[in-house]
Amino acid sequence: MPSRFDGQIAEVDAALRAKDEAREKIISFSREIIRRSGSAVLSMHKGDGAGAAASLEAAGAALAAAVGACRGQPEFMYTGPLPQAFQEYAEARILEAMMKDARIPSPSELGVPVEPYATGLADAAGEMRRVALDSLRKDDFGGAERAMAIMEEAYVGLKSLDYPRAVVPNLKRKVDVIRRLVEETRGDVTLAHQGRLIRESLANARPEGDRR
To answer: Which residues bind Mg(2+) per the record (predicted)?
Structure first.
């Protein structure tokens, strides 16, 4: 028997079905973005530029597909798994630029909202500590100091974004982490410099015949 609510319920059902289908697609795309972005970061640290580029390209394609799936459901841009995926993608792209000493891409250039971009920038700055330590292991003091300088510059910039957690979740905590990492990295670089000076001093103090 027809109900007076049949038309209304059918309209609601169609809208919710479309929303659920979009949600499932966005979940899948978000997982791909996160996986590919993580792989890109690992490849960068290994010096595998080709692998990093391939992963970033795949992540970018998944991101474009996810954004496309949000066109009819814009709320998913800011809820669910997509904000985390945006953050991971921004981190990978920014880290790529940092490691190449290239211009840092903007949020609009990456196609991500400003909130996950800011937290992704913070995470990328933290990844530069690993770059600094890898440089120190190779006695590349210039590379270590450059990585530390990038970390510090990012910290100063992000620290100026004084907004509550409700506006940018987790940013203040991440900025505090960067500050600690910058301090630790500065200590590591200083100790490495001192160690090199001591080694050079000892080498110069040896008799000519004992030097190797």
So the answer is: 127
